[in-house]
Design goal:
- By secondary structure, the chain is mainly alpha-helical.
- Helices cover about 75% and strands about 0% of the residues.
- The chain has a two-stranded antiparallel sheet.
- It is elongated.
- About 0% of the residues have low confidence.
Length: about 500
């Protein structure tokens, strides 16, 4: 079987699968190692796409025929990772559980192979949103690794890196940041600041910063690793392009949309020379560009781009693959912002149903989808339904993914808005004032998110008997929004509608 575009992270080309299988078989029989079944010997990177699936299938067939129980467990572990990549998260976790128990029986609980499989199992649980179970595994492995190797060994910090990612998913961002900092320090000490693993760790620290609204610190990280990769690997290396995309995302967080779009267009031009449209990096680039367009108020540009990504995903991925549903939510947002609320509700409900099928437990994507749906319900005047959900959802999100998670903030101001619309003014104003203060501290008084909350707060104050104060806040807000946003931005027309509610014509 000839497989196109199999290796080198999507570069054009083809390989003969039978040759790769023959090489991997020879390597296993001569050295006893199994890496050749998953790693390309030419580019020293993990196989991708169809080649990875074909190699995993061939390895599993070989081990089943030979009845080598230990190698079978390693081959099944590889198969589990392939299942996860195809979105079959439950099947991947079930197989990883069996592999872990098998390795523990044959090799012992604390052998390297068993420990590595324990971490793989924790990752499988994380994909299912079972973060507490993932944390329990990682904490136990980390305790053992610390006792055996110490805090500053590479083996230890690699476990820390996994745990930090889980803590991030649990909304414990400060704890995650602390582990990411230590991991980066140790990686730098052992491998140097420009080593690929060090740059990857720095990128993870940037994510931790971003999740805590430390956007300036995140920007500094992304600027450094992008420059380092450009210097070490070259301007068109896949890692350099990926870090460029991450840097553009950081620009978006800081509301530097023009710079973000310019950088993303440059990155996408280079992606197109190396990768087909179906490559995940290209799709991530399009998604980032569409996000910048949405934030700028260019919804009619963003929607077709999101739909282009969705069409490719639907062609490549199984029907219920979890990667489909965030893209659907982005399309729903575009429809909502273009005031196509009924269509937006239909798309959001479709995405939410798919997410519930994909994940067994509460997951950040499910929370995000539910908040988006509640905002759409409010826009359609379905206040009671939105309020009933948000009263349960907001405290649940605070406990699960943390108060600084962007959709927890969305849930807070949506709940304040709907409580105000229902006449529950004291509760609405208290919640919105607290949320507004928090966002001023995190992002600054003129940030777009802060202004969005100020608009909702102004309306709540006016409805709650403090009309003069509320209208004054709305007028200050619309003036700042018009300086920052395009005329058709959703935030502007929402503030205009709120001013009209109190018979105040917005000043031009």
């Amino acid at each position: 079987v000839v497989q196109k575009g199999c290796c080198c992270r999507g570069d054009a080309g083809a390989v003969h699968i039978a040759c790769l299988v023959q090489l991997a078989t020879h390597t296993t029989e001569s050295t006893g190692g199994f890496n050749a079944w998953e790693w390309c010997p030419t580019c020293n990177e993990i196989y991708t796409g169809g080649a990875r699936t074909a190699m995993a299938d061939a390895w599993l067939a070989r081990t089943e025929a030979r009845e080598d129980e230990l190698e079978l467990f390693y081959a099944q572990g590889c198969q589990s990772r392939v299942l996860a990549l195809s979105g079959q998260y439950t099947e991947a976790a079930t197989l990883s559980e069996a592999v872990y128990e098998g390795k523990k029986r044959l090799l012992g609980e604390w052998s390297l192979g068993t420990v590595n499989e324990a971490i793989e199992l924790s990752h499988a649980y994380g994909l299912l949103g079972r973060h507490a179970e993932a944390e329990a595994i990682q904490t136990r492995v980390l305790q053992h690794t610390r006792e055996k190797h110490g805090d500053n060994a590479l083996a230890t910090v690699r476990v820390m890196r996994s745990l930090a990612g889980t803590l991030c998913s649990l909304g414990r961002d400060a704890e995650s940041e602390k582990l990411q900092r230590h991991t980066l320090d140790v990686q730098t000490q052992h491998l140097g600041e420009d080593h690929p693993e060090t740059l990857y760790c720095a990128g993870n620290l940037g994510v931790a910063y971003s999740r805590q609204s430390k956007y300036t610190e995140a920007l500094a990280i992304y600027e450094r690793i992008h420059a380092a990769s450009k210097r070490v690997n070259g301007p068109d290396h896949p890692d350099t392009l990926d870090y460029g995309r991450a840097l553009a995302d950081s620009y978006i967080d800081l509301e530097r949309y023009t710079e973000a779009q310019a950088l993303l267009e440059s990155v996408l031009a280079l992606y197109s020379r190396k990768f087909p449209d179906e490559h995940p990096s290209v799709q991530k680039g399009w998604t980032a560009l569409a996000r910048a367009q949405v934030c700028s108020g260019e919804y009619t540009k963003a929607e077709p781009l999101y739909r282009k990504v969705l069409a490719i995903q639907q062609k490549r991925l199984p029907k219920d693959h979890p990667h489909l549903f965030p893209t659907l939510l982005c399309i729903a947002d575009c429809l909502h912002f273009q005031r196509q609320h009924a269509a937006a509700e239909d798309v959001t409900r479709e995405a939410l149903a798919g997410l519930h099928r994909a994940f067994d437990h509460d997951h950040s994507h499910i929370f995000a989808a539910q908040v988006i749906l509640d905002e759409i319900l409010i826009a359609q005047g379905k206040f009671e339904a939105a309020a009933a959900d948000l009263r349960v959802l907001h405290p649940k999100m605070q406990a699960s993914v943390g108060p600084q998670f962007v959709y927890t903030v969305h849930a807070a101001w949506a709940l304040g808005d709907v409580e105000s619309l229902l006449g529950n003014h004291p509760a609405a104003i208290e919640l919105l004032e607290e949320t507004h203060r928090t966002e001023i501290a995190a992002r600054g008084p003129a940030a777009i998110m802060t202004l969005r909350i100020a608009s909702v707060l102004g309306a709540a104050l006016a409805r709650g008997g403090r009309k003069e104060e509320g209208v004054a806040l709305l007028e200050r807000t619309i003036a700042q929004q018009r300086k920052r946003l395009l005329p058709n931005h959703v935030d502007i027309w929402r503030t205009v509608e709120r001013l009209k509610e109190f018979d105040v014509p917005p000043k031009s």
